[in-house]
Write a structure and sequence with these properties.
By secondary structure, this protein is an alpha+beta fold. The chain has helices at 8-16, 38-50, 68-79, 95-103, 131-139, 176-184, 213-237, 264-274, 278-296, 341-358, 376-393, 455-474, and strands spanning 4-5, 24-32, 58-62, 108-112, 122-124, 150-156, 162-170, 255-263, 307-313, 327-333, 396-400, 409-410, 413-421, 430-437, 440-448. The strands form three sheets. Strands 5-6-7-2-13-12 form a six-stranded mixed beta sheet, sandwiched between helices. Strands 8-15-14-11-9-10 form a six-stranded mixed beta sheet, with helices on both faces.
């Protein structure tokens, strides 16, 4: 594998990170233990299999090329014919390639690590009394940036009947689907359908064909209009803000995690009775759980309608795509202040329908798309400021992470539960991720450890809210 420049959104994630706000996503998988040595065996398997997965050998290196433009001009000069020559001289450096390198000034590349050692990434820990407590401590630790930015932490259970694996991937290395692909490559082999090949793009020259100019102009005007539309939507979203102080905090550098599991059959019963999609129901459950949690801790839910960022993947699960994040998003207000659970679901469904009608390329949630129009140096210089601006953009992240419908195993041990864990933006106290696996919906919660000492109570509120909606729809 060769080095390739980080895509703009990947570069943004790489530069937003700080010591107090690591930008890794994760998943906590809980396995049944087939023997007392199952956890140690799992760690050995993960290390041995990681060596054979090319994507796990990739590190990220910052690029600084102040002489890139000079080299590009030299390459152009080399392509021009010399005195008395009719044909261009053989270029010692392709001009287009040199230009791309000069434009990458201040960026970063993804490239193989010649010193890759799986044992630097796979770690076996002492027995844990609570997997989520151990995962919380590990989520607060940034990944080592000088080597491939991923880790797998194996946590034996004190009861000897189970163990957990916490997979951590830097968001610059993988989005949710890419992380799933990398983690699945470490599981026991199984027959999977081959991904559909991506059509090969025709080679592009440095200068466009004149016949393409009108289309390029239309695309440029469309991009400009989209950027203005997104900017205006972001500005409007800050008006009449109705969040809760409980969702904002000064960063402590600590993390807590918790999880909740509800039956997918219950979600389908709610969906069939009240309308909407599975995603609408899982978001409405989050809104109702936040209401319960805020009221019980004394913060109050009246008048509270926090802005939730709902990421939207632009990657097709079974299509082979290059590495890199392909994300947009929707922004919506969670109807936490609505007393009626079914009315909350109706409001969520209406808001999501409105977002879908507009599409993931416009609106305040599509800010990620603007990363494509920022030069690498802009990401490097503006990354810290962009991270701090997240609090002004949205109040809580609610993301859905797809998982395969079939069961996974590691060393023959069955994966019984998996909790997705999202990165926590600066100024935010909570992030919510949702995955469906083997007929159950798993909620993974990540919170600032100091700001949310009662995260387990919120996890319990998720289960309570789902039970309430199910009971209402069954009558």
């Amino acid at each position: 594998m060769t080095a390739d420049p980080l895509a703009p959104l990947d570069l943004a994630f790489w530069n937003i990170e700080s010591a107090g706000h690591p930008m890794h996503l994760a998943a906590l998988g809980v396995f049944s233990a087939g023997s007392p040595s199952a956890a140690a065996h799992a760690a050995d398997l993960l290390a041995s299999r990681a060596a054979a997965v090319p994507g796990l050998r990739m590190r990220i290196r910052d690029t600084w090329q102040p002489l890139g433009l000079r080299h590009s001009l030299k390459a152009l000069r080399d392509t021009l014919p010399g005195p008395g020559e009719r044909q261009p001289a053989a270029p010692r450096q392709p001009f287009a390639s040199a230009v791309r390198r000069s434009l990458a000034f201040g960026g970063a590349t993804r490239e193989p690590d010649p010193g890759f050692d799986p044992l630097d990434h796979v770690r076996l820990h002492p027995p844990a009394a609570c997997f989520h407590t151990a995962a919380g401590h590990l989520m607060g630790r940034p990944l080592e940036r000088t080597r491939p930015p991923w880790e797998a932490h194996v946590l034996p259970g004190e009861d000897g009947l189970s163990y957990a694996v916490l997979f951590k991937f830097h968001h610059a290395l993988a989005d949710g689907l890419r992380a799933l692909t990398l983690a699945a490559a470490l599981m026991d082999p199984m027959d999977l359908p081959a991904p559909r090949p991506r059509p090969t793009a025709p080679p592009r020259g440095l200068l466009p064909d004149v016949r393409e100019v009108p289309a390029l102009l239309r695309d440029a005007l469309s991009d400009a209009g989209r950027a203005l539309d997104i900017g205006a939507a972001v500005a409007r979203s800050t008006l009449d803000m109705r969040s809760s102080p409980a969702l904002a905090c000064a960063p402590s550098g600590t993390r807590r995690t918790a999880g909740a599991v509800i039956d997918l059959d219950d979600v389908h019963r709610i969906r069939k009775s009240a309308g909407g999609t599975v995603n609408d129901v899982t978001i409405a459950v989050v809104a109702g759980a936040l209401r319960r949690w805020l009221d019980e801790r004394g913060d109050g839910s009246e008048g509270v309608a926090p802005r939730a960022l709902i990421p939207v993947s632009r990657r097709r699960p079974r299509t082979a795509h290059p590495q890199g994040n392909r994300l947009s998003g929707y922004l919506m207000r969670l109807p936490v202040d609505e007393r009626d659970p079914l009315a909350r679901l109706t409001q969520v469904r209406t808001a999501m329908d409105r977002n879908k009608d507009a599409g993931p390329h416009r609106g305040a949630g599509a800010v990620a798309l603007l990363a494509d129009h920022v030069p690498p140096l802009g990401h490097r210089l503006g990354g810290p400021l962009l991270g701090q601006a997240a609090r002004l953009w949205f109040d809580v992240l609610v993301t859905s992470v797809p998982l395969p419908g079939f069961g996974l195993r590691l060393g023959g041990d069955r994966l019984g539960a998996v909790f997705p864990l999202a990165p926590l933006a600066p100024g935010h106290s909570l992030a919510v991720a949702v995955s469906t696996y083997r007929g159950r919906v798993h909620y993974g919660l990540v919170a600032d450890g100091a700001a949310v000492p009662d995260l387990d109570r919120l996890a319990h509120a998720l289960a309570e809210e789902a039970a309430t909606l199910t009971a209402l729809c069954d009558h």
